[in-house]
Design brief:
By secondary structure, the protein is α/β, with parallel strands linked by helices. The protein has 2 helices and 8 strands. The longest helix is centred in the first third of the chain and has 12 residues. The two termini are 21 Å apart.
Length: 121
């Protein structure tokens, strides 16, 4: 039986730089911080960072994790201001749901979603 999304893990070349960047993006430090793995508790879900050897391998599956935000446009602008590069601009995908993606400085796709129909609680 599935209990829902628990963890999204991004592979990074420089775990210290990635830890600093994501702490800045999230506004708080990780709850788990070891050389082999860094974990952030983001509203009850985990954003994990895993170090790669040299150039970290990226998933070729096309999987993108979207993190909930109150304002997709503001979130996209903030991420770009923090050093990410735009991957897809804010798009209305129907029923007032807005999504956008960036590439983090380590080559991972990081998605944001503004969904007025979803209330975590």
């Amino acid at each position: 039986m599935l209990h829902g999304l628990r963890t999204a893990i991004y592979s990074v070349d420089d775990i210290e730089a990635a830890k600093e960047w994501y702490a800045n993006v999230l506004g708080f430090e990780p709850y788990f911080d070891e050389p082999f793995y860094v974990g952030f508790d983001v509203g009850g879900y985990e954003l994990g960072l895993s170090p790669g050897e040299g150039k970290a391998e990226r998933s070729g599956t096309g999987v993108t994790v979207y993190w909930g935000v109150d304002d997709a446009k503001a979130a996209l602008e903030r991420l770009i201001g923090l050093g990410a590069s735009e991957n897809s601009d804010v798009q209305n995908v129907g029923e007032g749901i807005l999504v956008a993606t960036v590439l983090d400085p380590f080559g991972n796709v990081f998605g944001v979603i503004e969904n007025p129909h979803f209330f975590a609680g």
